[in-house]
Each structure stands twice: as structure tokens, then as C-alpha cells.
Amino acid sequence: MGRLFDFMLPEAKSPTADSTDALFHFINEASLVLLLGITFALIYFAIRYRRKSEDDKTPVITHNNTLEVTWSVIPLLITFVIFGWGYTGWLNLKSVPDNAYEIQVNGYKWGWNVKYENGARTLNEIHVPEGRPIKIVLSSSDVLHSFFVPDYRIKHDVVPGRYTYVWFEAEETGESQIFCTEYCGTKHSDMLAKVIVHTEEDFQTWLEQNGGGLEGTPVEQGEQLISLQGCTTCHSVDGSQGIGPSFKGIWGKEENLADGSTVTVDENYIRESILNPGAKVVKGYGNVMTPYEGRISDEEITNIIEYLKTLK
Amino acid sequence: MATAEVSTQKTLKVQRFKPSDNPTNTFLTDEKGVWAWMTTVDHKKIGIMYLVSVAIFFAVGGALAILLRTELLTPAKTFIEADTYNQLFTLHGAIMVFFVLVPSIPAALGNFIMPMQLGAKDVAFPKLNLASFYIYVLGAIFTFIALAKNGLDTGWTFYTPYSTQSTSSVIWITMGVFILGFSSILTGTNFITTIHKMRAPGITWSKLPLNVWALYATSIIQVLATPVLAITVLLLTMEKWLGFGIFDPAIGGDPVLFQHFFWFYSHPAVYIMIVPGFGIISEVISTFSKKTVFGYWAIALSSLAIAFIGFLVWGHHMFTSGQSAVATTVFSFLTFLVGIPTGIKIFNWVTTLYKGSIKMDTPMLYVFIFLFLFSIGGFTGIMLGALSVNIHLHDTYYVVAHFHYVMMGGTLIALLAGLHYWWPKMTGKMYNETLAKISAVLIFVGFNVTFLPQFVMGAQGMPRRYYNYVDQFTSFHQTSTIGSYILGVGFLIILYYLMQSLFKGAKSPANPWNSRGLEWQATSPPDFHNFDHTPVIIHGPYDYHQPMEEFQLGLAVDTNGHDPESAKEIIDEERDQWKNYSLG
Amino acid sequence: MANHSHAHPTHLQHHFVDSDQQFEASKMGMWVFIVNEILFFGGLFCAYIVFRAWYPELFTMAAKELSTVWGAVNTVVLIGSSLTVAMAIRSAQKNQKRGIEINLLITIALACVFLLIKYFEYTHKFHLGIFPGESLYTYEGIDHPLAHVFFSIYYMMTGIHALHIIVGIGLMIWIYIRARRNEFSSEYYTPVEITGLYWHLVDVIWIFLFPLLYLIE
């Protein structure tokens, strides 16, 4: 604590930050010393050896092997230290403790779907217990994203077609910001989420309350689904303009499509537009939606349709 | 080994050619008119055409940057939409990288100065040189077509699968970059050949100006790296157009493979941008301290070392991408190795000043600014090379600040140093020194106000390419925006006094800085053929302890294309100051 | 430096000191360009290596669709053309004008044969529905979900190579015309020499492409 460059880093909230922060401070302080040295030399020489006359004679100093070796080898040794230090810290970031609690996180344009072991699901919120290593398994359903939690000093790209992971251990209850750090389009900068840290007890209670899937009538489930699945990121339910057409009054509507044809919004159109959104794009909107093929069950689609019918 | 033969030694008759301070014929007075310029094969005119193009693109890229910074004054929308913002930062990056930084020093200043530093009349392939320029223009046209159609919103890195799915004009831009690549390749090919084959008598490898060494290293990178960029963007175009299945995971490809391909070029590309800047720094620092560059070979060879090691570190852009752990470790290690030659250069430059006769004219002022800013760029590069820290800092504003310190604080400041240094040579005019110094200080201040806060907010967690941001970063963003306005004013002042110099500037003597460099032994502006004699070099380019006269030697009888036997007859015995000089 | 009996030869461009310098510069320029080309194809070879390492069975299956016989014939054709272009250079060195012309014509003819065979290979595949890229590929004879990737690489590699052949033919026609105009002699045959260098490169690349694409077991 109390390092010169403390102001640059957010407060560390996971043991994964320890080695990173120590190295960050070391490099900053070493660099500052060198930078001050170089700057001082520059200013001193500029004043001490300023040109007095155009006929100034300067000594012929071509090179000095001792000096060259010194300022090659010493920085080399310092960088070796930095390399080793960074490498061990990174190994720690890669080696998930065996007892880690696993949570599935799926990035899509533009949000984070979170799934827990007992089937509980959240959107843009990761609920975790404190004091326990957490392994986040990352996947993407469309383009590259990147999962970044500054408080924990962890980051990993979320790559379509493969699984990646990060781990951390939240040291105290509270919230930490999650950013998407791989550019992914219009709402890249709104692809935010939070880690919400509970005490172990609170977490278990939360998990039980939210486990076991959705409850209620199909319409109620549909309403929860459109926010859990991130539909509302782009489609409003109140008729306001979004990246996609609003859901308000959509049922039974005649839509003009980008290719000039029209279509009536019915069960089959909605189903197709969820699973393969590029097939019939409404005029005036871009073909930017992620296909939900494989991410949503038929029953869920039916529930969503039931809910959409109610949005008059 | 022809030890028995003495014929490897040749004796040249040399004579002093003092350049006139009031030349009547220059490359600017010969071949006038727009058509003559457009069809010229003269490396000097081509260099100036590049310089003008680069300046225009820089103005465009700079204006985009100002728009971006203005939008970032407040979180969420300030005055433009998210999609527009995404297009603006993409274009800012693409234009600054491909149209400004890559061609700026080699194709503009290098084209003008390098053949003169070699004592050659032109580059080895003058027509190819002109072709390179038009290929560059063609690439620019493709880019403008893309802008007129749907723009580009992928970021300058074109990461798949976003780029293959994007509805913006990706294909036009990738084809533009593909075409542009050939301009770069041909310039590199031309320069390598020129440096090998077109040196005037006496310019051995150990007497090559460091600017030429730097351009040589740059050309090697251009030749080896750019073809890979060409094939990468071609594959990307095909991926998007026909669905090749190489980079897009939806049809069997791998996005990480694209990143490998892309950075295999784009990392060496940063050395294409910065290494020529090193050359300028060496030239200016020697001239304005009237002293031999300290550690000539250390500086010359470290450029080559950077060129080669630079090819082995591309993976350090991908520590968080999911590349293999072994690759990550090796790339991190090599990244530190490439930092060493850069450090060596800085130490050698600073030591050059020791016991010099230092004059703080504008070019030298820019060198000092360079040494300060580039050092910060270097140190933060070490920070980013460290694996664990990189995980935290990757794709944040810390990286944005780092590469602006390297590319703008390094390359662009070096370019400004070179521009102010060689401006009298290129135009024959002096510029307003006071205004020049004021703008240099403004740029220095503006630059730091813009980018220092970005280090802090990046380390705090602010990701790059963000239209919107969380409130805690507001004050950093606003400071940064104010800095960018100061920078803008600095550049406008430069534009003002350079234009003023062009039309009303005082006449420059042939060698206003009393440099020993060969390019200064021609008139300002130079003759159409650079020198009206074949220069002969007997001293190194930085031998300030030798008299100026001995840097102004040329063949007493120009045997260009003539039979030396018959040339003997033309020798006018009346001419004085002839010397016999043996070249080894 | 050798003495030159001819003062200011017409082929000497103004910025060179003498013919030797001009010749050496041109030759070196072409060598550097060849390095370029190797790196250019190198990128494609990397893509090839990566995908072959990932999906070895795809490559064995898909390569069966390529005609080894015609590939082999084309290899012989190209090697033959490399020989004739070398002979054209030899003729130039010996001041044999007819030799340059005839050898160039044979080279051009062989290059055209190569392209013709390539054309038939391509159309045959198009006929089957083997097109580059996932969106056009319709052939069902290869039981692999990524069959289109192999042919993307195949078309890209052979297509760019064919483009080089076409450029080469253009260059050789130009050289042929200049030879007819008596521009070359043992004193000056730089364009013949560097075109020959280029042609050897095109040949060598094919010698790598042939086994990599056609001869996978």
C-alpha cells in the first residue's frame, strides 16, 4: 500500500490482482527513475553544452564499448526479471483452483447471459459468493467479445466456436464492473455487466430462489425471457425506437421487408426471426441480430410468442 | 581473393564543388506545370507529392480525431450517434496507419532525401517509384469509394467474424489496403536496390548516413511483411465475398488465425512506421550538436535487429485472445528482446549530446520532444509486454495512450523534426523560427494533456473503442479532449507558417545548418539531377572534426556513361584544387 | 570497372553511371521482388499448413477430387518452359536473335498449354458444383463438413498462381516484341534475364503447389 502509482489502479478485490499490481508498480517506478535520468541528462546537456559560436569545436567521441555493453546488459537483466515476474503472475491467472465454483457466461451482441449450475439464469449480472474461487466459462454466440473485470485484473477474449475461461475470488461483498473490451458493434460500449458478491449464505439463498427455471403462465415466462435472452437490448416493448423493431403492437402487423416484399407477423415469422433473423429483415433495420439457433428451446419461443401477443 | 592485383584500388580525380547559395536551375524551375509534376520520375517531386498527400490525409485523420474527442466530452451521446462514432474511430485508425504513418517518412521524406544522401541522381527504378505513388492514390480512391458507400465500422484491425458479418463497405477498404500494400512493397524494393547499387564513390557501408540505414531496415520489413498483409486482406475479402471458411467460425474458420495473419504484418508495420523516424533523429541530433553520432554501429545495427526481432513478436497483441500458452510465453519473452535495441538507441542519442555544441533550433527541439515522449512510449511498451499486467491493460485506453506515444510522440514528432530540418532543402525557403518553436511547445503540451490521462483511465479499466463510458472516467476524458484541441491549434500554426514560408519565406542558403550531410552539399532546392557532378565521399557523414571543403568533393570529370579513356582528353588542366584520392 | 568501347549506349538510363550498374540494379530489384512473392505465397502456405494440421482427413479426401495426371502434365509443361526461357537468355548472351525469339515463343506456347489444362480442370470442378467458398459450393461427393475450405485454399493458391502465369505471358510477349525490334544483344539483355528470373519463380511455386494439393495420400 501507499505506492507512488496507486492512483492509477482501481482497488484490488481478488487475489488474482496481487502479482499484477506489484509488477505494475515496479515497472512504473523503475521507468520513472530512468525517464527522470534521461530527461535530466537532456536538459543538462542542452544547457551545459549550448552552442556558443558557430565555430565551436567538438571532441571526436565515436563510441565506447563498455558503455554500450552496460546499457544493453543491465536493461536486458531488468527485462528478464519483468518477464519472469509477469510470467508467474500470468500462470496464476491461468491455473484455476480445483475447488472453483463454475458459472457459464455467454456473450452476444450486446449483453452477457449467465447460467448457474442449478439452472438459474441472469442477464448482465453475475452473482457469486465471497471468499470462494469462481471459474467463469466464456462462450460467444456471434462475434468476438472480451470479458474484463478491472477490479480483479482479469480479462479474456470470448471467441465464437470455442470455450475460454477466467477465474477470480471476490474478497468482500459488493459489486464490480464488467466491461466488454473487444469491439463488437453499435452497443459495444453498453455491453456492461456487474459481478454481485454475496456472503456465502446469501448466495445460497439467492441461488435457490432463482433455480429451477422460470415460473408462471406462458405469458409471464415470455416476459421474463425477453429480458433474460437480451431481446430488450434492441427491441423495446413501449414502441420507442431501438436497433430492432419495437415489440409493441407487432403481433399481426404487416411488415415491409428490406427486399421490398411484405410479411404478416405470425407464429412462424417470429419463430424464424428468432432462429434465423437474417432471413426476413424489416425495411430500415440492419441485419445485425445474432441467430438464436441452439440457444433457445421451442417451448421458450412459444412463451415469447404468447407474450408478444399481449403487447397491443 | 585477388591479393596479387592492385586493380581493386582505383584512383579518382576529385575536385571541390561548393554548392551555390543562389542556384538558377533547380528541380522546381525545371519541368514546371501540373502535367510535368504528374508524370515526373524525379524522386524529389514524387517525394513532395507524397508529402502533400500524407499531409492531406493527416488533416482528415486529425479532424476525425477531434470529432471523436469532442463526442467523448460527455458519456453517451454528445452530438453524434454510436454507429457514426464507430465509423469515425475506424477511419481515424485506418487513415492514420495506412495512409499517413506507413508512407510518411519513407515515401515522402525518404524519397526526397535518401538518393541525395547516397549521391545518386535518382532511385534505382524511377518509373516504379512513380507507379508506387499512383498505386497509393488508387488505394486512396478505393477508400473514398468505401466512405461514399457504407463507410467502415470494424476498427482498423478488421477482426473476424465482426468484419465478415458487418454490412459496411469492408470489401472496398480491404481492396484499398491490398492495393496500398503494393505501393509499400514496391517502394521497399526500390529503396533496397537503391541503397545497394546506387551509392556514390566512397560511400561504404560504414559511411552510410544513419537515415539510410534506418530506411534500409524499414525497406526490409516492408518487403518481408507487406506481402503477408496483402494475402491476409485478400483472404478476408474472399471470406466476406464467397465465404471461404478460413477466418469465420460460422463456416469452419478460426478468428484467432486471422489475428495471427493480421499481426504478422501489423506488428512489423509499427516498425515500418517508427524505424525511419530513428533515422531522422540520428541526422538531426548530429547536425545540431556538431558532433559524430555516438555509437554509429550500435544505432545502425540496432535498426536491423529491430527489423528482424520485430517479426517474432506479433503474438503480443493476442495474449488474451486464446492463442496457445506456449506461444504467449515465447511472444512475451521476445517482446522484451525487441525493447533492448530501442533502449540502446535512446542511450546513444543522449550520449551524442555530451560535449557537443548544441543549438536548439526547431528540428532539435522536436528531437528532444521525441526523446522524452518516445521514452514514455517505450517504458509503457515494457509494461504491456509483461504477461500478467498485459491481461489487465489489454484493449484499454492504456494501450491507446501507449501507441499514440510511440506512433505520434515517436513517428510523427520525428517526421516534424525531419520536415523542419529538410524544409529549407526541399523548398529553398526558411520558416518563421519563433512560430515554429511556439507550435512545437503547444504540440508537446497538448500531446501530454491528451494522452497522459489516458494511461490513468486505461489502468483504471476504461476500455478502448467506447462510445459511452461510466461516469468515473468523465474528468479524464474531458482533460484529454482539451489536450486534443491544443494539439489541433499547434498543427494549424505549423500549416500557417509553412505556407507563409513557401510564398514569402526568406531565401535559404544551401546549407543553413552547416551540416556535413551529403544532401546539404547540393543547392537548396537541389538541381534536377541533385548534383551537377558525381559526389565523392572520403569522410563519414558525421565527421564534424573534418573541414567542410572535404565534404564537397566530386569527380573532377564526370564519366557518367562515357569512356574514361576519352574523358581524360576533356580534362581541363587549368582547373585547380584537384586531388587524387584512392578508394579502397 | 571495365572499359566500355561504346559511349553512352541508348539503353542506359540517365540516372545510372554505367551499364553494369543498371544491370545489377535491375537484377537485384527482381530478386527482392521474388522475396516478396515468396512471402506472399508464404501466407497462403501457412493457411494451408494450419488447416491441414487441423483436418488431415479432409485433405486426403478432398485431394482425390484433383486430377493427378493433369497436375503432373502441367508440372512437366512448366519445367519445360523454364528450360526454354533459360535458353532464351543463353541465346541473348550469345547474340542469337532468332534463338531469343523462338525460345520465347515456345515458352509462351507452353504457358498457354498450362493455362488451358488449368481451365479444363476448373470447369470440370465447376460442373460438379465445386466452387470456392461456402456460399457457392454444392458438391456432395466429399463427406466432410468443411470440404469447401479445402477448395477455397485450392482455388486461391492455383488462382493466384495462374494470375502470375498470365502476367508472365504478358511480360514475355513484350520481351518478344522488343527482341524483334533488335533491342537485345550480349551487351544488353537485362529485361530477358529478369523476366526469366520471374518465370523460374512461377515455376518453382508450382513445384510446391503440385505435391501439396494433388499428391496427398
Structure characterization notes:
The complex is a heterotrimer of chains A (312), B (584) and C (217). Chain A is built from six helices and twelve strands. In chain A, the strands form three sheets. A five-stranded mixed beta sheet of chain A has the order 3-2-1-5-8, with no helix packed on it. In chain A, strands 4-10-9-6-7 form a five-stranded mixed beta sheet. By secondary structure, chain B is mainly α. Chain B is 62% helix and 3% strand. Chain C is mainly alpha-helical. Chain C is 74% helix and 0% strand.
Please give the structural blueprint.
The complex is a heterotrimer of chains A (312), B (584) and C (217).
Chain A: H1 17-48, H2 65-94, E1 101-108, E2 111-115, E3 121-123, E4 125-129, E5 133-140, E6 145-149, E7 154-158, E8 164-169, E9 174-180, E10 193-198, H3 200-210, H4 218-228, E11 254-256, E12 262-264, H5 267-275, H6 298-310
Parallel strand pairs in A: 1-5, 4-10
Antiparallel strand pairs in A: 1-2, 2-3, 5-8, 6-7, 6-9, 9-10, 11-12
Helix pairs in contact in A: 1-2, 4-6
Chain B: E1 10-16, H1 34-38, H2 43-71, H3 82-117, H4 126-148, H5 162-165, H6 170-197, H7 210-242, H8 255-289, H9 296-309, H10 325-353, H11 362-385, H12 387-393, H13 397-427, H14 433-460, H15 474-504, E2 553-555, H16 564-570, E3 579-583
Antiparallel strand pairs in B: 1-2, 1-3
Helix pairs in contact in B: 2-3, 2-4, 2-15, 3-6, 3-7, 3-8, 3-13, 4-6, 6-7, 7-8, 7-9, 8-9, 8-10, 8-11, 8-13, 9-10, 10-11, 11-13, 11-14, 13-14, 14-15
Chain C: H1 19-54, H2 56-63, H3 68-93, H4 97-128, H5 147-180, H6 190-214
